[in-house]
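=== RUN LOG ===
request id: a7f3
mode: sequence -> structure
chains: 1
length: 543
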Amino acid sequence: MIDSIDANLAAVEAADAAAANGADAQGAMRQPIRPAVTKAAELARDAENRARDRQHVKGKFTARERLDLLLDSGTFEEIGRFRGGDINKGVAGSAVITGFGEVWGRKVAVYAQDFSVRGGSLGVAEGRKICHLMDQALALRVPIIALIDSGGARIQEGVAALTEYGNIFRKTCEASGFVPQLSLILGPCAGGAVYCPALTDLIIMTRENSNMFVTGPDVIKASTGESISMDDLGGGIVHNVKSGVAHYLGADEADAIDYARTVLAYLPANSGQTAPRYAYMATRADRDIAERLGTVVPGNERQPYDVLDVIRCLVDYGEFVQVHELFAQSAVVGFACMDGQPVGIVANQPNVNAGALDVDSSEKVARFVRLCDAFNLPIITLVDTPGYKPGAEQEHAGIIRRGAKVIYAYANAQVPLVTVIMRKAYGGAYIVMGSKAIGADLNYAWPTSQIAVLGAAGAVNIIHRKDLQKAKDAGRDVEAVRAKYIAEYEETTVNANLSMEIGQVDAMIDPEQTREVLVDSLKTLASKRRVSRTGKHHGNQPL
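=== RESULT ===
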């Protein structure tokens, strides 16, 4: 990194000074410093100084400063420092920095686009550097992290630049599901360039300076007459809240990079490994928090609560790293540890739309389940949902097609799957949220949970429609009659007893037991292995 460049240059200057003073050669440096090395070091230092001048005034770090924040101190090994440059003509290199480093002591491959060089645009030299790095990352089976800050394809190089994007797309697809891929959008990312991060596992953006769009504001203005700012078109807030393209919104670059480091702590280096385990010693305070779970969820099925309070009572130290926190908030997904083992957690959020599944939350859940399955993270599903969100808007938005993605994700997952039904699980949503029928290994229910095709009130209105009409015609209290039928339905049908009797729920557990049961279940399933049931190439997932 730039520190090593400065160190080399300092060594050169020290040797020159020693020679000028007639010092013993052994007291200075044994190996003579050649002029070409001196020139390259000076060129590299001047390039970083120019980058600081250009980036800092915009409130942005340089590419090398970003690498300093991302990687463990002193671990960066740069590849092809001057590739694409011309040392004799004073060109330090291309508009991308590539190399390897460590995060939490584990090797990763990184590339950082340098906006101070030709606006970070991608040409043939940059494309080949990135593809070479990705080839090495695949050979070494290590994660790939992209720090993106680019004006897009280099127009001067025409179709040759576009071809390099095609090469990167293909290699990104090759790496998908094999090694974790993270993209940090720390500046502009426009045109075809947006599909590089779109193909990766997680996209991280910042509140300011971060933009992604296929067609920029100027082109939109010229073609449609619509005036829109870059932030309103494709800023960090837009893609985290509305489109769901991004998975985390950083307050600034340092926060975004810290999130990337945090996520990597939960993921293995590749699909052939398990995630690293961490030492964990349960304390009395942890046990007290777990026991408090019985008071978190209200008994009234219509009363909302924050499922994050439930999750924090279950996981180690109450630490939960959300993914897609601002998007489709009727579902919650993220990483945590259970007894030191990283897991993925999927939960309905009763605080938002009663926890109902809609088109966006369905895709959010499906995508996260696929991510966990790709990288061997057990999935814990916490269920409290009234079903799919009804209405013409949802139907027209493709709730059938997009809701089917959740089914496909769970039905194909081969990591340990443990489900807890906390309060209610109705209709199709009960099936798709990690039910036994769809492939879950162990399913549990709390004593007050309700499992049925419909909630009691809805079912009574259908089943006893004629009885209610007769009561009304006879002048009886219809609400009292309805309440009587609801009570009977809840006692005989809605509770979890039937599910246990047919083997769809393995046990009824008290809320206070939930953490202990989950930890024991993960130990039981630790030896679960993948199996290939057919000889097909791949399934045809609803997309």
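=== NOTES ===
Residues 7-28 have pLDDT under 50 and may be disordered.
The chain has three domains: 35-266, 284-454+495-525, 456-493.
=== END ===
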